[in-house]
Write a structure and sequence with these properties.
By secondary structure, this protein is an alpha/beta fold. It contains twelve helices and 13 strands. The chain has two domains: 181 residues, D-Maltodextrin-Binding Protein, domain 2, CATH 3.40.190.10; 135 residues, D-Maltodextrin-Binding Protein, domain 2 (3-Layer(aba) Sandwich). Strand 2, helix 2 and strand 3 form a beta-alpha-beta unit. 47% of the residues are buried.
């Protein structure tokens, strides 16, 4: 289990996430908190001034930490509102291409086609790593026959055209229990990453699974079916360990080589092939706005504690310094051009 610096998810954050992400049947969700005491003293709005707004959209995986950052940031900067939407990495990039947002949250790297579309619209992006994640494959909590799976077995289950119907179809030692598969839809960066790493081709996947833009719907599905299986970012397992069970993953054909997702195995890359970086992509033009500068700086300073709080792995000192220096260089570049 990923536990960073011994810090767990607080009750307040769980409440926030329940409000934000437990709405079923919706592909777009928005969080707009009034903000509270961020620990550093709220900055009151200037008399006669309007509230400044930062538009953020994208990954549900990154939203776990982005929502925590939003709450703390708005408590620190009372004159600023972070309009956080959760539509998936792909839709976040579409919103960025259209010029409607300042920051795109992403659980995968930007595609060349997306960069080209941004460039065609005069939009330049700053890519910043903000955390590491171990994409987690989970089964029903009552599943007592499997603790580990190989990448080959996952491919048999999830590949396009898969004819696997029961757990016994995957391994003769497993019961004749129907498989019930759940996971994110095609706008999800987690979907893109999983299909490429497990099935060898992005977007290639069995038709026999239930897709949802809400990772909590996936968890509910797995929890409701004894033969259930699904995948999502580790923070969702971290917050729902009483409902589902995480599997160890083997990159070889031997289940004995399987590795569990932990802070150490994700950071080292030993949890292969499902360790991955998480990103925010900032529209460089938006860095002319002081509130966007403040928000992104906050993400790369105080926000790193929140990365650990929700279950992801914070950047190490060298990675964090690289990201901070890239941000300051981009701010200098855009402000000097004014």
């Amino acid at each position: 289990m990923i536990r960073c610096n011994g810090v767990g998810v607080t009750g307040n954050l769980l409440c926030l996430f329940s409000v934000m992400l437990f709405t079923t049947g919706c592909s777009v969700e928005s969080v707009d908190n009034a903000g509270g005491d961020g620990g550093g003293g709220a900055v009151a709005p200037a008399v006669g001034s309007g509230v400044r707004r930062i538009q953020v959209d994208g990954s549900s995986t990154v939203a776990k930490v982005a929502a925590a950052v939003q709450e703390e940031f708005e408590g620190r900067f009372a004159d600023t509102k972070v309009a956080l939407k959760v539509t998936g990495s792909g839709t976040g990039f579409k919103e960025m291409i259209a010029g409607r947002i300042d920051v795109a949250n992403a659980s995968r790297g930007v595609k060349e086609s997306e960069l080209a579309d941004c460039a065609a619209n005069g939009i330049e992006l700053l890519e910043l790593r903000i955390a590491l994640d171990g994409l987690t494959v989970c089964v029903n909590a009552e599943n007592d026959w499997v603790e580990a799976v190989t990448v080959g077995q996952l491919n048999r289950i999830w590949a396009a055209g898969s004819e696997v119907k029961t757990w016994k179809d995957v391994d003769a030692a497993w019961p004749d229990e129907p498989l019930a598969l759940f996971g994110p839809g095609e706008e999800s960066g987690t979907f893109d990453f999983f299909t490429e790493e497990i099935n060898g081709e992005e977007d290639s996947i069995t038709e026999n699974y239930s897709a949802s833009a809400d990772d909590n719907v996936t968890i509910t599905g797995i929890a409701g079916e004894k033969g259930g299986m699904g995948f999502f970012g580790y923070a969702y397992f971290y917050a729902n360990q009483d409902k589902v069970k995480a599997l160890k993953i083997s990159a070889t054909d031997d289940p004995a080589d399987a590795v569990a997702p932990t802070s150490e195995t994700v950071k080292s890359g030993e949890y292969a092939p499902l360790s991955r970086p998480l990103f925010i992509y900032v529209k460089k033009e938006s860095l002319k706005k002081p509130e966007v500068q403040d928000y992104v700086r906050f993400f790369l300073t105080d926000g790193q504690k929140m990365v650990g709080d929700v279950g992801y792995v914070p950047l190490d000192d060298a990675e964090l310094k690289t990201a901070q220096e890239a941000l300051e260089a981009a701010i200098s570049e855009v402000t000097a051009a004014e």
